[in-house]
Structure formats: C-alpha cells, structure tokens
Design brief:
By secondary structure, this protein is α/β, with parallel strands linked by helices. The protein has 13 helices and 11 strands. The strands form 2 sheets. Strands 1, 4, 5, 6, 7, 8, 9, 10 and 11 form a 9-stranded mixed beta sheet that branches. It has a two-stranded antiparallel sheet with strand order 2-3. Helix 10 runs parallel beside helix 11.
C-alpha cells in the first residue's frame, strides 16, 4: 500500500477502522437497479400527530389538546383523502404525496405491544416476535438473497454512529460516519500509513476507508461536521446514486420520545417533523434521476397514547404511522384498515390499535421493489410469516 493519500482521506478511514468497512465493487447500473433506504425514528413517533385521522368522529375529543384543526382552519392539517391529513410541518412530504411518490400507512406496528423502547426496537429490527437469542437483523438476512454475489459490506451501508441491529449479522456491512477530527500533519500521516502497510487486517480496511471517502468526496466535497440526520442522508444519497456504490442504506434518528410539551403545529414535535421533512426533500434532490429507482422506508418502534398526558405530551403507545417514499413507489394514498379512536376501539383502552404488522410492509418492499424471492422472504427473512402489503411500487 502506498502513502500517496491526503489528510482528509486518512481521518475518514481512521473513523471507520473499527466498523468492518470494505469498499464496494463496481456494478453496472441499469433502469431496474433498485435502491432501498430504511430510516428508523427511535423513541416512538406519534403517528396520530404525523398523519391525523381528522375526520374520525372521536378524533377531537380523544386527542384533546393534541388534536390538530381541520383542513382550511388556522394551523389545520393538510388534507390527503378527506379522512386522513398530514401535520402542516410536512410540506415537502405532502408534495411527494400529490406527485404519487409517498404512500402513508396508518395503524401499523411491529408484532409487539408492551411499550418498551428497547424490546420494541429489537422486534422491529430483527423482524422476530421473540428477538432474544437472535443476533441478525431482518435486512441483514435479506442481503444474501439481494446482493447477487456481492458481500454484505459491498451491498449495504449503515450511515451514522453505531451499527443498527437491523443490519447486524455474521459479517459486517459497510459503514460511514461524519469526520469530526482535525487532519493530521503529513509526517504523522506517513508514519501511520507505514505502520499499517503490511497489517493483513487493518491495512486493507484502511485502504477501504480511503475508497469510501473518495466516493463521498468525488460527488461534491467532503461531508464533515456533526453526526446529524441531514449529514448522513446526504452521504447516503452520494453512495446510492453511484453506479459502483451500494444499493441499501440504513439510517436512524433519535429524539422522538415526546412525553412532555409535545405541541401540535408548533413545539418540539413539529420541529422534528419539519427537520425530517426537509431532510427527505433534500435526499430526493440529491438522488437525482436515481430517485425513480428508490424506495425509502420511514418507520418507528411504536406510537403514542391517544390521549394527552398531564404534562401536555403523550406516553408510550402501540399503533403508529409509517411512510414509504420514492420515485418507484405507488403513492398518493393512505393505506389503513382504520380501527377508530372511540374508547371501546382502542388497544387496552388507551392506544391506537394496530391493524397492520410492520413485517407485511417490509416483506412487500423486499419482494415488489427489490425483487427478492417470496419463498426466501418467508423462510429466511421473516421465518413463518407470509403476509405482505400489495401494490407498493409502480408497475409501468
């Protein structure tokens, strides 16, 4: 391994030495070459605040101070279909919906209903009703059927700090995180490169890090700074839009646990919605023409209580909402077997009752968008589970 690299490359490589990153191989792009992004909103997003069922007769009384106004009123919801609306913070998402690029799902949840963040996230990410004793995530298990001979680290990337369980398995997937360290001087760089030059483990990984950084830098300069969703989403777009890049990316966003002073169209939750909305809009723009081959799953581990709590927030619930976005998506509609918000229809008298298993959404995307064999999904990805949402992607 030579030493003809610059400081920028070295720091980025060092940042991922411990993450098992190796460089992707070239893969010729074509019109049917799909991309998949999974974004996990950690903490339990309030799906009733994101996609409010404003025309449900019990909505206003059930939600109380967390209820949004009807379309056309001050701070009212953005109407979708005469029954469901969008929080007005989602201006860009509403535009995607009108363009047929956003499918919204309501009353959805992983197969778990006991309201523990960590256990619910484990169920969401493993795709198993009992994740104890199982190390692999559902998306990792799908990779061997998706990657067409490419190793996991060449086909899928985790972006941001840590490695989500959804892509954990026997072999590491690719990883990238923003560089927050100052560059070393040339002498330090050369000494460290010489130190690792003949290391059979760290040497190749260091080189892989340089390759990954070059991939990022070749499309608009280095991404450096805070490890926030906007930064990692921009990196995801740079990786996925390349013909020699990966085809699957996983990201997450924290801070969705809104126990106090949640707000409606203003306040902490609306600010989170607006941030997410802007990130999704920029991601679409950054993907360019590859957006038409892309599906983005936005999911959370559970929803919130229907009623407001004593601190004007909401507590851990069950049913929530999910988004499926992208140019490949058959959108412009809300998918829901709506259970209703009347007290007698709530789960345990307090939560939105889930009527759709999250695995049906995941399985549908894997089969209909990514082209994964249905038998493989039922046997390897979600063992024993056979349902899937139909009509998720465009067919013509």
């Amino acid at each position: 391994m030579g030493t003809g690299i610059n400081r920028r490359q070295f720091i980025q490589a060092c940042g991922i030495l411990t993450l098992g990153f190796t460089a992707p191989i070239a893969l010729a792009g074509h019109s049917s070459d799909p991309r998949l992004v999974v974004l996990v909103l950690r903490g339990g997003m309030d799906g009733l605040a994101a996609v409010p069922p404003y025309a449900d007769p019990a909505y206003q009384s059930a939600r109380g101070k967390l209820a949004l106004g009807s379309p056309g009123t001050t701070d009212g919801v953005i109407d979708l279909d005469g029954f469901f609306g969008l929080n007005p913070a989602f201006e860009n998402l509403a535009r995607m919906y009108r363009q047929g690029e956003a499918l919204l799902l309501q009353a959805i949840a992983p197969p778990y209903a006991k309201r523990s963040h960590f256990y619910a996230q484990d169920v969401l990410e493993t795709g198993l009703t009992d994740p104890s004793g199982h190390d692999s995530g559902w998306l990792y298990r799908a990779l061997s059927g998706l990657s067409r001979g490419r190793a996991p680290e060449q086909y899928a990337y985790s972006l941001g700090a840590g490695m989500p369980r959804i892509v954990q398995g026997d072999s590491p997937v690719g990883a990238w995180a923003p560089d927050r360290l100052p560059d070393p001087d040339d002498a330090t760089l050369q000494r460290l490169m010489a130190l690792y030059e003949h290391d059979r483990y760290l040497g190749p990984k260091l080189q892989a890090g340089f390759n990954a950084d070059e991939m990022i830098s070749s499309m608009g300069g280095k991404l450096k700074g805070v490890n926030n969703l906007a930064t990692v989403a921009k990196a995801a777009a740079r990786f996925l839009s390349r013909t020699d890049g990966p085809r699957v990316a996983v990201m997450d966003s924290g801070g969705w646990d809104t126990h106090a002073r949640q707000g409606t169209t203003k306040g902490p939750l609306a600010n989170k919605f607006r941030e997410l909305d802007n990130v999704l809009a920029r991601f679409k723009e950054d993907m360019g023409p590859v957006w038409n081959q892309t599906a983005v799953l936005v999911v959370t581990e559970f929803g919130r209580t229907v009623a407001v709590n004593g601190t004007f927030g909401s507590d851990h619930g069950v049913g929530s909402a999910a988004f499926l976005l992208g140019g490949a998506v058959n959108g412009g509609r809300v998918h829901s077997d709506w259970p209703g918000l009347a007290k007698a229809k709530l789960y345990e008298g307090r939560d939105l009752k889930p009527t759709l298993d999250m695995r049906a959404l995941f399985a549908g995307v894997l089969h209909q968008h990514m082209g994964l064999d249905r038998g493989f999904i039922e046997e390897q990805v979600f063992p024993g589970y056979r349902d899937q949402v139909s009509g998720l992607v465009r067919t013509g």
